[in-house]
Design brief:
The relative contact order is 0.12. This protein is of the alpha/beta class. About 45% of the residues lie in helices and about 20% in strands.
Length: about 300
C-alpha cells in the first residue's frame, strides 16, 4: 500500500539546524539528539518535500539551491514561533502588551524612534517593534492586523481604520552658510535661481510644491524619494529643499538651518490604527503622547 510522507516539525527543526551549522554533528548538539537521528530526519524531510536538499561530503551536508530557497520560508516560520515563545514568557512576567508600529522613514528614523525610547523607559514588559516602510506597506500592515499603529505621508481615510491627519507646515532646509539664512521666513521668490531638490517626484506633495514654484527660474537636477536623504544632500552644499519639518529638525545639530516657508505648504502625516485593535488604550496613549512630543519639539501651535 502506498504511504505518503508527511512533514513534521522535528524534520523542519533538523533541516534548519543543519542549514545554520553546516554539519550533522553540530546540528545534533543544537537539537540535543544523536547524529543518526539528524541524518534520519533530514532523509525523511527530503522524501516529504520531494526535494534534493543536500549533497553529502562526509560529515558535511552542502545545501543545494533548493535548500537555500526553502530556508527563507523556514526562517520566517521560526520567527513566528520565537515570537510566540517570547510572548508566553512575557505573559508569565506580567506582560504589558504588544505595540507594532510601521511608519514612513522620515518619522521612523528620527523623532518617532526618540519618542519610543522615552515611552518605554517607564513601561516594563511592553513588547514593541518599530519598522520604517513605504506608506503603501504601512497601510497594508495596519489593515491586515500586523500593526497596531501606522504613519503615512499623505492625507488618507479608509473604512475600518481610525485615520487622523496631523497637520504640519513644510520648511526650507539650507546649508549653514547660505545667503538666505539672513531671513526668518522664505517665499517662492526667495528660491529664484536656487537648486531646489525634488523630494519624492510624482507624489502629491511634490506636485503641490511644483505648482507653488511654477514660473520662477530655478535649477533642479537632483531628485530623491526620501526627505532625510534630501537633508544629507543639502548638508553637502548641493542645493536647498522644501520638506517636512520633523525630518529637517533631525539635521539641526549637524549644521543645517531651516526657515519657515510662506505661504504655508502642508507636509504632515496621517496616523492610522485599526478600529478592531485589542490594544486600543495603549495605541491611543502612544499616539497622543507622540503628537504632544512633536508639538513641543517643533514648537507647533496646540490644536
Amino acid at each position: 500500500m502506498y504511504q505518503s510522507h508527511r512533514l513534521n516539525l522535528r524534520q523542519v527543526e533538523a533541516f534548519r539546524a543543519v542549514m545554520l551549522t553546516g554539519q550533522i554533528t553540530a546540528a545534533a548538539e543544537l537539537l540535543f539528539v544523536t547524529q543518526p537521528a539528524v541524518s534520519r530526519l533530514i532523509a525523511d524531510f527530503e522524501r516529504a518535500t520531494g526535494l534534493h536538499l543536500f549533497e553529502r561530503r562526509g560529515n558535511r551536508l552542502l545545501p543545494t539551491s533548493a535548500a537555500f530557497t526553502l530556508m527563507r520560508e523556514v526562517q520566517n516560520s521560526f520567527v513566528g514561533l520565537d515570537r510566540i515563545a517570547r510572548a508566553a514568557q512575557d505573559i508569565g512576567r506580567n506582560f504589558a502588551g504588544t505595540l507594532r508600529i510601521y511608519a514612513m522613514p522620515a518619522l521612523a528614523s528620527g523623532m518617532l524612534a526618540r519618542y519610543l525610547g522615552s515611552f518605554l523607559r517607564e513601561r516594563k514588559g511592553l513588547q514593541v517593534s518599530l519598522n520604517a516602510a513605504s506608506s503603501a506597506t504601512v497601510i497594508e500592515k495596519v489593515a491586515s492586523g500586523d500593526a497596531e499603529l501606522g504613519y503615512v505621508d499623505f492625507q488618507f481615510n479608509r473604512t475600518g481604520m481610525r485615520c487622523r491627519h496631523r497637520s504640519i507646515d513644510a520648511v526650507v532646509v539650507l546649508p549653514a552658510n547660505h545667503r538666505l539664512n539672513e531671513k526668518k521666513e522664505l517665499t517662492r521668490d526667495d528660491l529664484i535661481g536656487e537648486s531646489v531638490i525634488d523630494v519624492d517626484p510624482g507624489s502629491t506633495y511634490s506636485k503641490r510644491l511644483s505648482l507653488m514654484l511654477e514660473g520662477i527660474e530655478r535649477t533642479s537636477m537632483i531628485e530623491t524619494n526620501q526627505s532625510l536623504t534630501a537633508c544629507s544632500i543639502v548638508l553637502g552644499g548641493a542645493g536647498v529643499a522644501v520638506i517636512d519639518h520633523f525630518a529637517a529638525t533631525e539635521f539641526l545639530a549637524r549644521g543645517l538651518s531651516l526657515r519657515r516657508f510662506t505661504p504655508p505648504l502642508e507636509a504632515g502625516f496621517t496616523e492610522l490604527s485599526s478600529e478592531e485593535s485589542q490594544q486600543g488604550d495603549l495605541t491611543t496613549e502612544f499616539a497622543e503622547g507622540f503628537w504632544d512630543f512633536l508639538q513641543e519639539e517643533l514648537h507647533l501651535p496646540n490644536e
